[in-house]
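Tutorial, part two.
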Amino acid sequence: MFKKIKDTIKKYFSNRKGNEIVAIALVLIFIILAAAGPLRNLGNTTSEGVLNLNTQMEDVLSGD
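Running the prediction step on this input gives:
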């Protein structure tokens, strides 16, 4: 009887750890997906800023 209780408790804790890993993975996936849009916008903004700076530097260096 004690062995059965011990096995049940051991099974509960081993399954619980697996569930925690899955929960953490799901939270990380959600954070990545939620942050994808703002990161893409930040990349576009940075790209536009670099292109504008490049254009301005070409104008200055060419004497226009």
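Residues 19 and 36 are 26 Å apart (CA to CA). In part three we will examine how such features are distributed along the chain.
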